Amino acid sequence: MKKLSSISLAGALATGLVIAGSAGLTTAANAGTADAAAKAPYRVTLKVSESAAIAGETKLALTGKVRPKPEKGSPVSLQIQYEGKDRWKTVRTVGVKKDGSFAFSDKPGTSQERSYRVVKGKDAGGAKGISRERAVEVQAWKWLDSFTTSAGADVLDIYEIPVNGETYRRNLVLDRTKDSGFEEWTFGRKCTVFESTLGLSDRTETGGQGGIVVTSDGVVKYARTFNLGESELRTIDVTDVYRMRLDFGQVTTTPDTEPTAAAARVLCD
Q1: Which of 49, 56, 100, 267 is a plausible cystine mate for 61, CB 3.0–4.6 Å?
Q2: 43-140 domain in CATH 2.60.40.730?
Q3: For this UniProt entry, which residues form the secretion signal (predicted)?
Q4: 3-class DSSP state for residue 129?
Q5: Shortest CA distance to 256 belongs to which of 211, 210, 199, 198?
């Protein structure tokens, strides 16, 4: 009986050691798993409201979430990389909300192409996480009189001139001593929109008439003859246009006038 009791006791002790050992291994494994999870990178999502923008006009909304949820107020940073540049520039930092979400806004000031990303730095909740990059194409308005003229004759750049009761800046005007004139510009398929208020200057004598024609790569896109006191704001698609031309002409049987492309500008890369 004593021998059996000794064996039973030894077995019980051995079993206890095995159980204790298993529990220790399980605890260690759980701790290792927790440590691994703590070191895993944060997962950061990012959405941008627009894939194309106009410099100085379009306000972009950039939103996303961080998972697993960090503490409320934990910082995330918005970064921009401009086309042709290698480095990312941090432009703004905000704290995440209670649900791990964040929101930024940005209004591009130039026509430089750019990509955005959001970075969540390392902390007790996880390792550094970086969102996917989101590219945005940006265009900017440029005054037509700032372009180098490819060809032209008898058209003047006049900074201020009245047309139909309104004073405009950055204007292209036919020399009133000439019957006709033109200018051409090479856009090289890098512009998308031409915009101008077209009409006659208010310096025209009563009864004067004149016309304006807009041509893109040899195709007439607009043509009209104006009387004094008439004008219209026109927006003309010049996507993929290599060269645009403006023709100005006076109706020679009427008093001298100044056909005018007022505040003429184009939207370009």
Answers
A1: 49
A2: yes
A3: 1-20
A4: strand
A5: 210
CATH 2.60.120.1060 domain residues, the chain: 147-268
The alpha carbon dihedral of 223, 158, 193, 150 has a sign of positive
Residue 244, number of CB atoms within 10 A of its CB: 23
Sign of CA dihedral 142, 147, 151, 152: positive
Dist. CA 23–CA 16, nearest whole Å:
10
pLDDT in tens, 123-136: 999 999 999 999 99
Phi/psi of residue 243, nearest 5 degrees: -140, 135
- Record: fold of 147-268: Jelly Rolls (2.60.120)
Contact of 140 with 104, CB cutoff 8 Å? no
Dihedral angle sign, alpha carbons of residues 122, 128, 134, 140 = positive
Return d(Cα 123, Cα 41) in angstroms, integer.
Answer: 10
Per-residue model confidence as pLDDT tens digits over 216-266: 999 999 999 999 999 999 999 999 999 999 999 999 999 999 999 999 999
CA distances from 8 to 13, 169, 223 (A): 9, 105, 110
Distance separating alpha carbons of residues 140 and 195, to the nearest angstrom: 13
Residues of the chain with CATH 2.60.40.730: 43-140
Number of residues assigned to the chain? 269
Has residue 10 got a pLDDT over 90?
no
Q: What is the DSSP-derived secondary structure letter of residue 111?
A: -
The helix/strand/coil state of 3 is: helix
